[in-house]
Amino acid sequence: MGHRVLVVEDEEDIAFPLVRTLEREGYEVGWVDTGQKALAELEGRPADVVILDLGLPDVDGLEVCRRAREAGFDGAIMIVTARAGELDRVVGLDYGADDYLSKPFGLAELQARVRALLRRTAGAREPAPVDGVLRIDVAARRVYSGEDEVPLTGKEFDVLSILAANRDKVVSRGRLMADVWDENWYGSTKTLDVTIGRLRQKLESQGVSDRVVAVRGVGFRLEGASPES
Hints:
This protein is an alpha/beta fold. The protein has eight helices and eleven strands. It has helices at about 10-25, 35-45, 60-70, 85-95, 105-125, 155-165, 175-180, 190-205, and strands at about 5-10, 30, 50-55, 75-80, 100, 135, 140-145, 150, 170, 210-215, 220-225. The strands form three sheets. The chain has a five-stranded parallel sheet, sandwiched between helices. Strands 6-7-8 form a three-stranded antiparallel sheet, with no helix packed on it. A three-stranded antiparallel sheet has the order 9-11-10. The mean pLDDT is about 85. Keywords: DNA-binding, Phosphoprotein, Two-component regulatory system. This is Response regulator transcription factor.
């Protein structure tokens, strides 16, 4: 399901085009016409973006903004209003709004601002990778230590992927050789030891907290404090 947008606007001739436009963009859209309904809606069904008119019939939009923030709402709030004064703009931002759009406005501009708010809030909500934590993107065949990529060869990546999929469990040398090289591989098993050695060196040089541990006579195990995500 796409992002959810809540339109808080008491004038139907403004609200209906907004709702239709946003729905055509693929958003899930809710509409309420009073401040109290908006606060109740946010309590029950949080939104990613709130498009908030200031001139509501029951509660001023600034008060709705303030109460929503005090209640813990962390989505984006865009105020739309016929009040064009700089003071109103400053007060709105002080009350917790993220953007401010004066009426009349074009629907294309509003759509662009909604997209920008979604990008901004998504970035703020996503936790930054932690340095030293091993992260494996299997689909892209890439490995990271926090935000830094660890450059691995194809065989090194395959070995690490198998070990990570069996974290804290011993994977036998035979299985690694069969899965990574080929079950009909007739070369020396020292090839595995060389690959493991290079893999260890690369992970350690990037500060990865996880370690590839050898279990004598059996195989290898990936262990560490932080689970791969």
